[in-house]
Amino acid sequence: MPDSRALNRAQWDERAPAHARSPDYALERFRSEPDFISDVVRFDVPLLGDVAGLRGAHLQCHIGTDTISLARLGARMVGLDFSPASLAEARRLAADCGAEVEFFEADVYDAPGVLGAGCFDLLYTGVGALCWLPSVERWAAVVDELLAPGGRLLIREGHPMLWALQDSRPDGLLVVEHDYFEREQPMVFDEAGTYVETDAVFEHTITHAWNHGLGELVTALLGRGLRLTGLVEHDSVPWEALEGQMERLGNGEYRIAERPWRVAHSFTLQAEKPA
Ligand SMILES: C[S@@+](CC[C@H](N)C(=O)[O-])C[C@H]1O[C@@H](n2cnc3c(N)ncnc32)[C@H](O)[C@@H]1O
C-alpha cells in the first residue's frame, strides 16, 4: 500500500496554486475588499457568534481564505496544514491583505506540539478536512489537547452520508457506494480534476480518504470529555458534490436539485472543553 500521507500531500501541493488562481476562492476580492470574508465563514457566522479577541486555530487551513476571514472577524488566528504549497499561497495572501496570521506546516496529528497545548479559545475546521484523516479518535484527542479550558470547537463538514454516495447518476438516484463508517483501509480515488473552476491539468490524481460516521465523531469528542453544544445538519454544501445534480444557491452553497430532503448535505458541530 503506498504511503497515504505522501500521496495526499502531493495532490494538495499540486492543486494549491490552481486553487489560488481560481475565481471560486476569490483571492482578488480578499486583496481588494478589506471586509471580504469567504462564503464558508459567512455561512458559519450565525453559529460562530462573536469571535473578536479569541485565540483561534484553523486546522487544515489550505490556502488560508477561511483563516484570514476569521482574523477579519477579529479572532487572533493561526493556521496549520501539511501542504507547503498551500501555506505558500496562504502566507502570500495574508501578507497582501495585511492580515496578522501565522501559518504552520505540520500534520494535524502533530498540531499540539507545534501550536502549543491548551492555547486556544476557538478551533475551527472543516469542509473537506476530516476525510483526509484515518482516525477521528486521534483527531478528537488533538482537539482536546489544543483547546484551553472553556475553549470551543466549530467544525462544518460535508455530511458522512453525502461522502458515502456514488457520483452523479443520470437517473438522479442517490446510491450508497462508499464507506459510511471509519475503516482502517482507506478508500482510494482517482480524480483528474478538483472542486473549483480551473483549466489546470494535474499529474497527481490518486488520493486516499476515510469517512467517519456522525456518531463516531460525536462519540470521539464526548470520549475526550468535551461537551456537545450544537449539531445542525444542513441541506446544502459549499461545493458541487454531485456534479450536474445540484443547483447553486447564490451564497456559495449547492443543493441537490431534485428532492434535496433525501439526504443531509453537511453539518455544523460545536463542542466545548469544560472550564
Ligand atoms: C479541502 S482543504 C480544507 C480547507 C478549507 N475547507 C478550504 O477549502 O480552504 C483540505 C486541506 O487539508 C490538508 N490536509 C490533508 N491531510 C492533512 C494532514 N494529515 N495534516 C494537515 N493537513 C492536511 C490539505 O493539505 C488541504 O490543504
Provide key terms for this protein.
single chain; 275 residues; alpha/beta; seven-stranded mixed sheet; binds S-adenosylmethionine
Description:
- By secondary structure, the chain is an alpha/beta fold.
- The protein is 31% helix and 23% strand.
- The strands form 3 sheets. It has a 7-stranded mixed sheet, with helices on both faces. The protein has a two-stranded antiparallel sheet with strand order 6-7.
- Strand 9 and strand 10 form a beta hairpin.
- The protein is globular, with a radius of gyration of 18 Å.
- The model has no long low-confidence stretch (mean pLDDT 96).
- Bound molecules: S-adenosylmethionine.
- S-adenosylmethionine is lined by residues 8, 12, 60, 62-63, 65-66, 81-83, 86, 107-108, 127-129, 132-133.
Count of individual beta strands? 11
Read across the widest sheet, the strand sequence of neighbours is 3-2-1-4-5-11-8
Largest sheet: 7 strands, mixed
The bound ligands are: S-adenosylmethionine
Helix content: 25-40%
Q: What is the distance, rounded to the nearest whole angstrom, between the alpha carbons of the first and last residues?
A: 43 Å
Radius of gyration: 18 Å
Order of helices and strands: HHHEHEHEHEHEHEEHEEEE
Total helices: the number is 9
